[in-house]
Amino acid sequence: MLYITEKAVLKLTNCVDAEEFQQLYTEERLRLPFFASIKALRRPSKSSAAQPGGTDFLRPQQNDNNFDCYIVDAAEQTMQEIPSAVCLKLLPMLNCSVDSILPATLQMIRKSEHYSMAVQYTTQEVPAELAKVASKTKAGITLLRPCSRVAVLVISNQRSQLSPSGTGHKLVTANVVDFLHTDNAEQPGPQQKYEITTFCTLDNVTDYKLDPPKQAAFKQQAALISVTGVVTADTDSTEQPIKGFIADDVQLLNPEQAECVKTMLKKWMYFAALGGQMSRKRESEPWSPEENPAQTGPCKRLGRAPTGPELPDYSDFMATASMATAGA
Predict the structure, then answer these.
(1) Which of 95, 82, 86, 83 is nearest to 127 (CA)?
(2) pTM over 0.85
(3) Which residues contact 143 (CB under 8 A, 6 or more apart)?
(4) What are the extents of the domains in the chain?
(5) What count of other Cβ atoms lies within 10 Å of the Cβ of residue 303?
(6) Degrees to nearest 5, angle at CA 219 with 218 and 225
(7) What is the CA radius of gyration of the chain?
(8) Residue 110 and residue 119 in contact, taking contact as beta carbons nearer than 8 Å
């Protein structure tokens, strides 16, 4: 169970007070950032013994461990803060949950028979420090990771179309392209285009529209979207079918923000692919003096990565993965 303080959640949602938070939540206009950095406090759990006549039985009990975790500070992740290779030390500690969000391009998303979706990565070169805990060490092999959401950076060149759907409205944007593939010279031919479908209300429809800005020099809108489903749309030709995706969140970006996210996304994709190569049976090893959490230096600003070399880009393998998919 993970709790969050009122101060932290108001900061994260940019609300003035709890009353505004409740109002935005009721109106379905409460927006959380796509990626956030948090500061968590862990402390021993209180006794779970219920008192006669009390309400302790209504509180969630933690029988699996003896600690409660509280988010005491939170902030939207700054995309200029590039993660360092020191973060790779976290991979052996993470569980490969299928109820997760993975970074990818639209071309890498696959339907899954048993899960919501899957992302098709190619395995990366395993750093020497992770060789003992990696189950897949050969680079360039197809790797499928199931997930519930996928974070994708896209570009729209035309307006979204609104239509009634049940108690709300459906918003469809056609001819959307993946931003990470717009300048990929290794991919011949025209850009693959997709349809992005979201569901909204008339009160929050502007938060989901991918309409290009009218006053901008370039008539296109970049956005970070959260894909939650895969659908098959009508095709414009047998050679280049248009595939469709369902998204439940959209974060509009200006050109400068889009370039920062583009740089960050390539490194997150490398991190995610390498995470799928880790063994589920982690070797139990004691903390070294350098890795001991008690010896970690303080962080003056949320979202900053430890000092160290940058993570490699996943982009070296994107062309290979796309060509292998086209050949299949």
Answers:
(1) 86
(2) no
(3) 120, 121, 122, 123, 136, 273, 276, 277
(4) 89-284
(5) 17
(6) 105
(7) 22
(8) yes
